[in-house]
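#onboarding

Welcome to the new folks! Below is a worked example of what a typical request in this channel looks like: someone posts a single protein sequence, and someone else replies with the predicted structure as tokens. Don't worry about understanding the tokens yet, we'll cover that in week two.

Example request:
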Amino acid sequence: MMKSRIPLVLLACGSFNPITNMHMRLFELARDHLHQTGRYQVIEGIISPVSDSYGKKGLVSARHRIEMAQLALETSDWIRVDPWESEQEKWTETVKVLRHHYNESLRSLQFRKGLMRNNWPIERATEDFLSSLDPVSEHGLHSLNSHHALINKDMQQ
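Example response:
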């Protein structure tokens, strides 16, 4: 009997000013790697452009960045652009964007499959995935493991 895979949604936050082929390629590489582990099933990819208030010099309006991303992704059957973050009046912390999409994914799955929250193992998937990426911190990036408690706490609110 084949072990069931943990469903995951890949989320990329950023300016996407403009979206590039490499942005899209990163999604493909991440999905391929996660599927090869045998533990995860990537069910969706989401590109989440920042709002106009981000303040980056030369930032094209969110409306245009959303449109560019939609055009770039029109042939993808699993990656989509979500405008929620770009529609916020102020810059939104990544953990809040993550919480928004987590809640949206739960609502969508509950609606489509009639699942109860505790039946979808996203909390465990988040923990496993973040802890598996912790070695990234050795290269000068923020330690994802150190954000684990914050993310779990914030996603429950």
